[in-house]
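Tutorial, part two.
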Amino acid sequence: MHIPWEPELASPERPQRGQREDLLRATLEPLREDERPPALLVAIAVCILLALAVILGATTVHNLSRRGGSLPGGVFLAIVLLLLGLGMYRRRYWSVLGFEALLAFQIIVTSLALVVASTIAAAAICMVGVGLGGWLFWKLIRVMGRIQADEQGPQETLR
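Running the prediction step on this input gives:
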């Protein structure tokens, strides 16, 4: 009988520690030329839409400085989002990683907002935000692996 928290002795058919990761890396198919998986396209669209929303909000909100914002700050944020979108369109690993960092921040902040939500509608919006952000984060992990497999080549390891 095996207890789940006990370390299991290595058996010949079970891969050793580190071998499992190598086997999983070997199964990753690098992205084909001009291939962009659906999760990557969704991430690019989110970047473009957020950049447009930031510019629209920064230019149309009256007394932006009273609300803690500024037009140069909004323009800077929009440029960063557009550059992330462009980098992801070009299938750059660091752009996807940067977008994932922003997604992680969004998930954390939205989770904290869920704690103080005062209405059912606000809580539902927070739950949808956490769910969609988490889904996109999870889907982009495989995309990052495929991008890195393409950059590294089959004979190199990722350690």
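The chain has a mean pLDDT of 84. In part three we will examine how such features are distributed along the chain.
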